[in-house]
Each structure stands twice: as structure tokens, then as C-alpha cells.
Amino acid sequence: MTRTAAIDALLQVARQGLDRVQPADLAGEMASGALVVDIRPLEQRLRDGDLPGAVVIDRNVLEWRLDPTSPSHIPAMTHRDRRVIIVCNQGYSSSLAAATLRFLRLDPPPTSSAASRRGPGTGATSAAAMSTDATKH
């Protein structure tokens, strides 16, 4: 009998209610007013490239920056009903982050996204190269 690792179980629960946005739809999401937040570490952004139009926020301060009631929120996050798409490299951290952000009662809930892994020099310069997830209340 195979046991599921605790983190795998947590990830499964965290992903319940996520609205997975397809890579090709990311540009349209931004055009519709979604806030795309890149939580990838600097090393990954340097290796894979920046995501045009995304706001970079370190994971360790994400909740403070995206809570419109926090004195530390970013200027783009002034109301709870802004659609937020969280981007990471593989979709794990962004899923957990989006699940955590649900507790801030953002409506619609934040989204999570994974940047697909690419070889050196290819860069993350197009929406088609991205994989995204979104949460729904």
C-alpha cells in the first residue's frame, strides 16, 4: 500500500477551487485587468526570464502585499475584487500561495500559476510559455 506524502495531500487540498488558466489565456487575463504576480525566486527569473506585465513579489511577503486592508499592500491592490494570478516555476508554490490568499477573502480569489521549465536562454517572454491557475470562491 502506497502512502501519500503529507505535502502531496496538502497540495491536493490547496488546489481545490483553483481555476487553472491556460498559458495562452494569460495575456487576455492581463488585458481584462487581472494582476499577475510572479513569486519565482530571483535565480529562476534570471535563468528563465521575466514575465512581461507581472509584478514581482517575494513569497515571504505576498500576503501583506496583496491584502488591500494591509498598510503594506502594493498600490495595484486597492480592492478585494481584483483578479490575481500567482506565478511560480512548477505550480506548487503558487498553488499553496493562492490557497493561503483565500483566507484574506479576496473575491474573486487569487489564482496560481506555474511557469513551464525551459532551457537556458529561452526566457519567459510570452504568455504561451506560461501555465496558470486561478482560484474561485
List keywords for this structure.
single chain, 137 residues, alpha/beta, Oxidized Rhodanese, domain 1, two-stranded antiparallel sheet, 5 helices, 7 strands
Descriptive report:
The protein is of the alpha/beta class and 137 residues long. The chain has a single domain, classed as Rhodanese-like domain (Oxidized Rhodanese, domain 1). The chain is 28% helix and 17% strand. It is built from five helices and seven strands; from the N terminus they run αβαβαβαβαβββ. The chain has helices spanning 6-14, 26-31, 42-48, 62-66, 92-102, and strands spanning 18-19, 35-38, 55-56, 84-88, 111-115, 130-132, 134-135. Strands 3-2-4-5-6 form a five-stranded mixed β-sheet. It starts with 5 loop residues before the first helix and ends with a strand. Residues 116-137 have low confidence and may be disordered.
How are the SSEs ordered, and which strands pair?
Blueprint: H1 6-14, E1 18-19, H2 26-31, E2 35-38, H3 42-48, E3 55-56, H4 62-66, E4 84-88, H5 92-102, E5 111-115, E6 130-132, E7 134-135
Parallel strand pairs: 2-3, 2-4, 4-5
Antiparallel strand pairs: 1-7, 5-6
The largest pleated sheet is described as: 5 strands, mixed
Task: Give me the CATH fold name.
Answer: Oxidized Rhodanese, domain 1
Which stretches are poorly predicted, pLDDT < 50 over at least 5 residues?
A: 116-137
Mean pLDDT: 78
Bin the strand percentage.
Answer: 15-25%
- In angstroms, what is the radius of gyration? 14 Å
Number of strands: 7
Number of domains: 1
Order of H and E elements? HEHEHEHEHEEE
**What characteristic shape results from the CA principal axes?**
globular
Which architecture name does CATH use?
A: 3-Layer(aba) Sandwich
Briefly, what CATH class? Alpha Beta
Q: Helix segment count?
A: 5
Which strand order do you get reading across the main beta sheet? 3-2-4-5-6
Going by CATH, the homologous superfamily would be Rhodanese-like domain
Distance between the termini: 35 Å
